[in-house]
Amino acid sequence: MMTTREQKRVALVTGAGSGIGLAIARRLVSDGWTVLFADRDFAAAGSACSEAGGAGTGSRPLTLDVSRREEWADAVQDLRDREARLDLLVNNAGITRDRTVEKLTDLDWHQVIDVHLTGTWLGCQAALPLLRESGGAIVNLSSEGRHGSFGQANYSAAKAGVVGLTRTIALEQARHGVRANAVAPGPVDTPMLAGVPEDVVNGWLEQIPLRRLAQPAEIAAVVAFLGSEQSSYITGQVIAVDGGSSHP
Ligand code: NAP
Asked: Residues lining ligand 1, CB < 6 A?
């Protein structure tokens, strides 16, 4: 049985219009959270909110390009005005621009760093005052690619950066009652993988002990745990959700 306080808990999920973000937002709605479905595409966020059962629960879509500081400021002000609290920030929005290092352009580099790493930093910085008020939590999406990933120098660097950022926020904010953790999935069955050639995916599958891709709901379950009181003594950690690929 949920308490009244839990029923009123508010989460903001970035990139909630698709894939893992949608699954996270759906899971949180079903756990009784009020969820802000944030995405750069308002129509996608609106459809996701309806599809995930958010309509009529207080959940709502929100336009937010995570790489833009002024949009974070607007989003947080909007939250203050309407929900007046934030208990969980999930920095999930992402893009890929894959090329080997010698072919990578400045644009490929900056676009990926801007969304994954700068976007996560801007989100944490903007949301921390509200999270401190509620004793809330941050969950950032890293990736198995944080250890290096062929053709993904920009993405790998960003996802390794997300780990350092998360750990630093955890250290700085623990005294203020805010926890920060990262989730590092292996390959997940989402639109992000649509452009990856089949032989590459098959090569990955051979290396994954569980011999399959993750489903978005399997990532969402871990994010929901890290955002809940059940993980109240876990902070500064990176939780691998990768079918057994990584060593502890
Ligand atoms: P996805 O299906 O492509 O969804 C990403 C969402 O983020 C899309 O709705 C996208 O909008 C949105 N987005 C992109 N740039 C944005 C921005 N600047 N501001 C706000 N929203 C933005 O990807 P996914 O597979 O669910 O990935 C979600 C997260 O998990 C990413 O951080 C990714 O790196 C991480 N991850 C994924 C995998 C995997 O195998 N899929 C593995 C490890 C980690 P558009 O559709 O308009 O671009």
From this structure: 14-15, 17-21, 39-41, 44, 64-67, 92-95, 115, 119, 141, 143, 185, 187-188, 190-193
